[in-house]
């Protein structure tokens, strides 16, 4: 069995605390552009490409996106502005134990990366605020691949930039159903769900996974088990 060479983390709800900033920003930006969406529907799409989420709800309510590109662009710009302001206002707080987990994995010679439905600007804001740029050198945004989660392309791109060729050496970690679906679609050795986000254990149990844990603080034990 090959060793674990790469661990890929989602960001919001997995590495930083999620207090509903993304859902709140979405709901306001969509509402401001005449698109009414329930909080439950938005929570279910957490982890997806933010542009793809907006496109989905516009097409659902108004028809083909080609006829509504200006609304999509305006809504996305509003979402980005609102989310940045919320993170600046509320602060960005790491999940307890995240840094310690990074350090343990680094000492084992394991490479670390992130994938996110945010664009580069927001992901950079988070990494700079937490001072994680050196700890997490490979960062993939959904805007940098053809399709976001549940497609596995962000995982594959993280592997490419990390120099890891076999998915049997990869652990993918996230707090949403889409994170787990993407990990399974990639064929990752470890598909780990964390309960530090907005989804309950019962919801994540219904998705493909190898492990469910309380938070990334428990991840070193999982990696040890997968490496055995």
Descriptive report:
The chain has 228 residues and is an alpha/beta fold. The chain has 2 domains: 6-17 and 93-227, Rossmann fold (3-Layer(aba) Sandwich); 21-90, DNA polymerase, domain 1. The protein contains 10 helices and 6 strands, in the order E-H-H-H-H-H-E-H-E-H-E-H-E-H-E-H. The protein has helices spanning 21-32, 39-44, 50-62, 69-90, 98-107, 120-130, 153-162, 177-186, 201-205, 219-227, and strands at residues 6-9, 111-116, 138-141, 170-174, 190-194, 211-213. It has a 6-stranded parallel sheet with strand order 3-2-1-4-5-6, sandwiched between helices. Strand 2, helix 6 (120-130) and strand 3 (138-141) form a beta-alpha-beta unit. Helix 1 (21-32) packs antiparallel against helix 4 (69-90) and helix 3 (50-62) packs across helix 4 (69-90). The longest helix has 22 residues, at 69-90. The mean pLDDT is 94.
């Amino acid at each position: 069995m090959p060793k674990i060479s790469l661990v890929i983390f989602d960001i919001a709800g997995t590495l930083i605390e999620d207090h509903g900033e993304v859902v709140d920003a979405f709901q306001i930006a969509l509402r401001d552009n005449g698109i009414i969406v329930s909080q439950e529907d938005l929570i279910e799409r957490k982890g997806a490409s933010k542009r793809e989420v907006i496109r989905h709800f516009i097409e659902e309510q108004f028809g083909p996106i080609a006829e509504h590109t200006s609304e999509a662009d305006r809504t996305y710009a509003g979402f980005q502005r609102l989310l940045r302001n919320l993170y600046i206002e509320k602060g960005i707080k790491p999940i307890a134990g995240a840094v310690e987990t990074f350090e343990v994995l680094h000492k084992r010679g394991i490479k670390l990366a992130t994938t996110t439905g945010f664009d580069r600007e927001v992901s950079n804001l988070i990494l700079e605020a937490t001072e994680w740029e050196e700890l997490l050198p490979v960062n993939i945004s959904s805007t940098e691949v053809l399709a976001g989660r549940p497609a596995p392309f962000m995982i594959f791109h993280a592997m490419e930039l990390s120099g890891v060729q076999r998915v049997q050496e990869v652990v993918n970690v996230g707090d949403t159903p889409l994170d787990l679906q993407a990990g399974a679609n990639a064929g990752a050795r470890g598909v780990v769900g964390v309960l530090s986000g907005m989804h309950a254990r019962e919801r994540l149990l219904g998705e493909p996974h190898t492990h469910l844990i309380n938070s990334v603080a428990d991840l070193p034990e999982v990696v040890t088990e997968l490496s055995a």
